[in-house]
Design brief:
- This protein is mainly alpha-helical.
- Helices cover 62% and strands 8% of the residues.
- It is globular and about 30 Å long.
- Keywords: DNA-binding.
- This is DNA-binding protein.
């Protein structure tokens, strides 16, 4: 089966964050609403993996610190 690395699904969010399926759906809805408000097209039940990681882990800030050598 093909695994999509571009989007993260509700089931994967359940595993990554150790939350219930209903909480995962709420997270996806909130993130998709933010993206939709910015003018992006969204897919119900999935969210951009990159956006998810930015919002939950602050990926951009880690990358910038690593480039500076301060991490």
């Amino acid at each position: 089966m093909f695994e999509c690395r571009t989007f993260i699904s509700v089931k994967e969010i359940c595993q990554v964050l150790s939350v219930s399926e209903s909480k995962s759906y709420a997270i996806v809805r909130d993130l998709n609403k933010e993206l939709s408000d910015k003018g992006y097209m969204v897919i119900p039940g999935r969210v951009s993996r990159k956006y998810f990681e930015e919002r939950f882990y602050g990926v951009d800030s880690f990358e910038k610190e690593d480039e500076d050598g301060s991490l």
